[in-house]
Amino acid sequence: METTLRKTGALLGKDLKDLVKNPTMLICTLLPIAFVLLYAQMSGGSPEESEMLSRYLVSMAFCITAGMVGSMTVLTAIAEEKEKNTLRTLMLANVSAGHILASRGIVAFASIAVVDAVCFAVLDVPADQMGSYLLISLLGSVPIVMIALLLGLAARDQMTAGLYSLPIVLVAFLPSFSMANDTLEKLAPFFPTGEASELIELSAQGSLYTGDALQPLLVTLAWMVISVVAFALLFRRLSRDN
Amino acid sequence: MAEFSSIEELAADDRSVHIECSRETSAALLAVVRARYRTQRCAFVLETDRGFERDSVASHLRFYGSIARSSVHYEDAISHFNLRGVAKRKMGGLSPSALALVNLARASLFEPEMCFLERPLSDLDAEGRSIALAWIADRMEQGCRFITTVEPLREALLMPGVACWHEEGRFIAVDQDDDEDEDGGTAYEGDEVHVLKIPAHTETATLLFDPRDIDFAESMNKATYLSVRGERYQTPRTMDELERELSRAGFFRCHRSFLVNVQKVAKVERYTRNSFNLTLSDAAHSSIPLAKGRAEEMRERYRW
């Protein structure tokens, strides 16, 4: 246990440092903040419209952050390690795939929390809801990060990682565009980030602790459980291939 | 001639072994060695190890130091492998020789009982080779087993342990010379200038070399090669014939497989009780093994 903590701790330090030093990763990680800042400029109508827009932007910020940060800090980062053989060097130094993924997962959740917090702070929403936004955002991001970890193990290099990150980003973003038409609106709740973004909107409306939140909460938890179980099942097989 | 009939047999031996083989064989060997030494402290250095390119050398070694957590501090490894000058440089911008030393420094952090190295000397200059060989010899004296894969065979002979080459699934050990001189020894008649040319074949011509241009001759896989200004030329002469002809021109049989132009020797180095190397003043600063039994003879003959 002590060894696991020491190794994961060392990896964590390295991965966090790399996140800051790698311009591509840093820009993609901070992109959701830029999006939110841009969209926030659109507000300017009546106070009701402004408030509605802010509510929408809060849930959109969550979706974009989960997709962009999840795929970048996990999938691309693992794929780069594979492409440049640093993953093999690590594994030959008696570092297990579990240590590596644990560190990458922690970096992903920490980055998501920071980026989400900045996005929410930029938007004009009640500050007392910050705790619940962040909690829901982190829970809602679990499926995306789990899928990204698995795809990171499956990706051969950064080119394939680029390809694999497309569906992640699309799936994560989709609920933000659910109002575009009826079909998307019907589909959105079944997507991993769909009901979590609904929960965030409810929270922004101040109706998080009502019956309306029950179904989204259950679906979000179900996605979490499904993704964690799928990860546990596939992790061993995929890490053996490395 | 000693030999190992399979990779498993080679891995099961407990001596240090240095093998001239293909990359494919090296990969197969790595897998077997990894499985066999699973429970021991191991260090692996592969040709493809480049490290995190945005990381500095010091931070790279500090990271592996905290993974290994042995009694070797990463700062000591930096000093030991003479990396102080590049400690702040990014891994991605290192020269191949500095990278090879960083990789060995990383291995040293693990204080390994088993160390697998792929082509450890290939990218090193004379100074780097000397540091690397000294570390290998030192570690070996402390009981570490080294398995290295090299190209060419000469590099295997530079390291203490069994040198062998891979051929059709078998690993054939080079006769490790030489406490008694089996060849009977050629009587030394003093250096004289003779009209003497050594033939070597290329695809289209036979070249005739002046002995003064030859840095050294080596025999490998039953063929003999001359090293002239960094190029290798195959000669029809056997090692013994060359020794007879060239001993008058200042050449010395420093190892069963090597005949060196003594005029080109710049440095004699001793790493352990049993391992000596000669560093030449040729363009590549080549290192040549000096067999233990012949070191004394060489010292006496040239009064060093």
TrEMBL record, chain A:
Organism this protein belongs to: Enteroscipio rubneri
Signal peptide: none
Gene Ontology terms: cellular component: membrane
Pfam family, one: ABC2_membrane_3
Designated name of the protein: ABC-2 type transporter transmembrane domain-containing protein
Residue ranges annotated for the ABC-2 type transporter transmembrane domain, each copy included: 49-234
Transmembrane segments: 24-44, 56-79, 100-123, 135-154, 161-180, 213-235
UniProt keyword annotations, A-Z: Membrane, Transmembrane, Transmembrane helix
Gene Ontology MF, one: ABC-type transporter activity
Compartments it resides in: Membrane
Membrane topology: Multi-pass membrane protein
From TrEMBL, chain B:
GO molecular function, one term: DNA binding
Domain HTH LytTR-type: residue ranges: 198-304
PROSITE patterns: HTH_LYTTR
A Pfam family this chain is assigned to: LytTR
Protein name per its UniProtKB record: LytR family transcriptional regulator
Source organism: Enteroscipio rubneri
